[in-house]
Amino acid sequence: MSESTVKAGSYQEVEQGETYAHREYGLVEISGIWKGTEQLERVRYMDEKDTIIVRFTTRNSDERAREFAETFTNFVRDLE
């Protein structure tokens, strides 16, 4: 993940493989987007009734990569 590939602007959509600045984890890369058992390439803001899970990885210079998962709503809320 390089800082030059960080997405900027309003986060109404996230895309698999893209890098975002997360308030808690720093730079993160989307490793998967799931709606039930269906994997998606990208997702736009949806009604709360549709649960979307975003999996993402983070890597600090002195650590191994770590993977996390959050609901799409929570993930988007924590982007800078």
Structural features:
mainly beta, single chain, 1 helix, 7 strands, globular, 80 residues
SS elements, strand count:
7
Strand-residue proportion: 35-45%
* Ends apart, CA distance between termini: 16 Å
Low-confidence stretches: 1-9
Explained architecture:
The chain is mostly beta strands. The protein has one helix at 72-77; strands spanning 13-15, 19-22, 26-35, 38-40, 42-44, 53-58, 66-71. It has one domain (3-77). It contains one helix and seven strands, in the order E-E-E-E-E-E-E-H. Strands 2, 3, 4, 6 and 7 form a five-stranded antiparallel β-sheet that branches. It has a two-stranded antiparallel ribbon with strand order 1-5. The model is unreliable at 1-9 (pLDDT under 50).
Short description:
This protein has 80 residues and is mainly beta.
Task: Give the arrangement of secondary structure elements.
Elements: E1 13-15, E2 19-22, E3 26-35, E4 38-40, E5 42-44, E6 53-58, E7 66-71, H1 72-77
Antiparallel strand pairs: 1-5, 2-3, 3-4, 3-6, 6-7
